[in-house]
Structure formats: C-alpha cells, structure tokens
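User: I'll paste a sequence; please echo it back and then give the predicted structure.

Assistant: Echoing your sequence first, then the prediction.
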Amino acid sequence: MYHTLEEFLEDWRREVQNTTKLFSRLTDDSLSGKVWAEGRTMRTLAWHIVSSVSEMMGRVGFVLDDSNGEEAEPSSADEIREGYRARTSALDQQLQEKWNDASLAEEHDMYGQMWSNATTLKVLVTHEIHHRGQLTVLMRQAGLAVPGIYGPSYEEWSAYGMPPHP
C-alpha cells in the first residue's frame, strides 16, 4: 500500500519504464499472435494494458485521453507505444497537480467496492504487472526477444558472461 504520493510515483515510474521496455520489442507483425483460439492477441493484451490506465483512473476523476479506455485497438505497435506514453505521462502530471498524500485515503466506488485511492493505485500497478507477464509469454512464443524486467531474460544472460538459464 502507498503511504505517500511520492512513494507511488517512484514505483509507477519504474513500472512504466519496464512496460515501455517490453512494448519496445513489439512489432506490427507480432501483434496478431496468440496462444489459443479463445485467447487474447498480443495487440489486445497490450492495448488492454494501455486502456486500463485511462479506464481505471477515470473512475477516480482523471481524464487522460478522450476515450476513457474505450477506443478501438490500434493497428500498429507504434500506436500502442504512443498511447501508453501519452496516458502514463498525463497520469503522472495530473497526480502531481490534483492529489496530495491526504488524497490517498479518499474512497471511490471501484467495480462495486469502496477502495481508497491508495488501493486503486496499487491495483493499477499490479494489474499492469499481471498482464505484462502474460504478454511476455506471447512474445516468447512469437519468437520476440523478451527483455529482462526484474532480472536478466534468457537472452540477456550472455551479456553477463554466463550461460542462459532455461
């Protein structure tokens, strides 16, 4: 749980960098890849990560774009990256302008439950991490190099002079 707005912003900025690193590996050709017939494509999953920032934070009064998380999926990886950059930048700026540490204790109806703003911010981060993990599986199956997020990826071990760990 977050106790100060700065504590969240430090965590959020680090996770935004991690997601940006992952999104940088997406290609237009890879976006249609999925594991099973009923599953999400990489495009759908990546765009869900992007649109959830607007949708979730829209429930607590932030307007990060014109869609409130309901626009159509973009056709290119560049559009996904730009959508994510725009929304996360807008959130960072608006949080600093509109909220303070006391705002974290305020509650809002989130999906039929009353959540403090601190809880909403924590769920925003963990939701993104959850779907980012799913995206790495799809990327690996599509033959894309997966960047290390919390440690080296399979491909990155060689940069440390060590054999890759399967």
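The mean pLDDT is 92. The chain has one domain: 5-160.
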